[in-house]
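Supplementary material to the annual report.
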Amino acid sequence: MTRQVDVVNAQGVHEQVSIPAERALTVYVDKREIVTLMTLGAHPELLVLGYLRNQRLVSQVSEVASITVDWDAGEGGAGVAAVKTYQGIADIQARTEKRVVTTGCGQGSVFGDLMDEIDTLALPDAHISQARLYGVLNAIRLQESTYKSAGSVHGCALFSGEDMQIFVEDVGRHNAIDTIAGWMWMHGVSADADSIFYTTGRLTSEMVMKSAQMGVAVVVSRSGITQMGYDLAARLQLCTVGRAMNKHFLCYTAAERLQLDPALAKATVHGVAAA
Amino acid sequence: MTRQVDVVNAQGVHEQVSIPAERALTVYVDKREIVTLMTLGAHPELLVLGYLRNQRLVSQVSEVASITVDWDAGEGGAGVAAVKTYQGIADIQARTEKRVVTTGCGQGSVFGDLMDEIDTLALPDAHISQARLYGVLNAIRLQESTYKSAGSVHGCALFSGEDMQIFVEDVGRHNAIDTIAGWMWMHGVSADADSIFYTTGRLTSEMVMKSAQMGVAVVVSRSGITQMGYDLAARLQLCTVGRAMNKHFLCYTAAERLQLDPALAKATVHGVAAA
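Predicted assembly:
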C-alpha cells in the first residue's frame, strides 16, 4: 500500500521515503459510468459497495449481483469496478446528476435531500464512558498503519465497545468510511448502542451524516469539528468527541452520552507518549 | 469567520472553543444549478469565479456578466450564488454531468480529460532558493488565521518570491485554491517564474493539477504527497516540497528547481519554535 520515492531534504541529502499508493477506480453500475474514486486500493469491492450504499443508490445489499474489479481496464491507467444489479437502479441518471461539494469530499448527497433526511434518523440509546473512550484511543494508537509508515492517509475504525471491528485507511477519508459501510453490509453487521466510530479526519457534516446513517451515535476524531458538522450532530443528538489523543479530548455535542470520569485524565497510561 | 461553542473537556470542565463557520452555497449558472459548495464564506464571489475557472466551465473572466450572492436565498438554509454569463455555457449539461471524486475533494475534472490535459501545460522556468523557501514558510507562520483561532480549516497562499500576494482559508482546501484562482482572474494576475503556491493540505493530484493550470511551477505544503500527486508533478516537472515547517522539508519532485543551501537548515531562526 506504499511506494518508496527518492526525496531531497533540507540538508541537501537524498533519502527514501514512503508515500501512500493511490489508484483511480472508475465505477460502472450496469454499464453506466457513475464516478471515479481515488483510492489506496486495499478493499475496492467493499469501497464500491459502501459508496453505493452511502450515496443511497442501492438500498439493500441483496440488490447487487456482483462487483468485479479490474485494475488495468480503464482509460488513462484507471481501474474499473463493474457493478451488476439484479433489477437496475431506478432513476439512476437523475440520482447521479446533481452534486454537492461538501467540506471534506464531494461524494455528498444533494444538500436539500440530506437535510430532509436528518429527522428520519433514529440513533440508539448509546453512551460511552471515559474509560471506554480511552480504550478506543489506545487501540488506535497500537494499530499498525499506512499512516505510520507513509502518512497522507486518513483512517477510520468501527468499534463495538473497546473492540476494534474493522480499521480502514484510504487516501480520501470518505473512501475509508464508505469501505466500512460496505463491510457492514457484506457481513450483516448492524450498529448498536455499543458502536463507536473513529476517524482521523475532521468531524464534517458528511462524517456526522454517514455515521448517523450507519446508526452510530458516538463519533470520535483526532481532529476538530466544522460548523455544519456541529449543527448536524447537535440536531441528531449524536455525540461528537474531537481533538482526541492520549488523555485529551473535547466533547462538542450530546455530552449527555459521555459518562465522565475526570480522574482518568490524570492517571498515567504506560507507553503513551505525549503527542 | 468563527463561532464559539460550549464543549466539555477530559477534566469534565466546560469551556468555550472556536470552530470555523461553514455555509452551504448553491451555485446557479444562468439559472441552472451546478453544485453546492460548503465554505467559510469569506470570499464567495471569488470562490465561485475560481470554481468555474478550475472546472473549465468558463475560459475567460470576460464571459461572466455578474455573480450575485445571497446567503438567505436557498433551500434548507443554503446561500445562493447566481452567475450570469453573456453567452451562456455551451454543453453545460454534459460538462457538469460526469464527476470524479478525487482524494481531497470531489471537484475534479473528469479523470480521462485531466490526464489528457497534462501534456498541454507548459510551466515557467521557475526556481526557488532554500532561503526563499524559508521566507515563504516564515510568512505563513506569521499570518494571522482562522486556523490559529479555530483549527479545522485549510489555508492556501500565492507568493511572488517571498511576498505573499493573497492568503485564503476555507473549510475545504479546494475552495481555498479556487478562491485564489478567482482572485487572479479578477485582478488580472498571472503566475510567473517567481510564483510559489503554498497549501496546508496534502499534495494531491488535484492540488498539483490546479497549480499547474494556474501556471505555478513550485508548490509547497506542510503535509505530504499522494502517489497520484507525485506522478503528476513528476510528469509536469512541477517542483513539490512537502512536510515543510520551520527548517524541515522534503523535496519530492523536480528537485532541479530547488537551489539548495543546506547551511541555512542549521542556522537559528528567532522565534521559531519546534513543531
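Residues 23-115 of chain B form a domain with the Ubiquitin-like (UB roll) fold (CATH 3.10.20.10).
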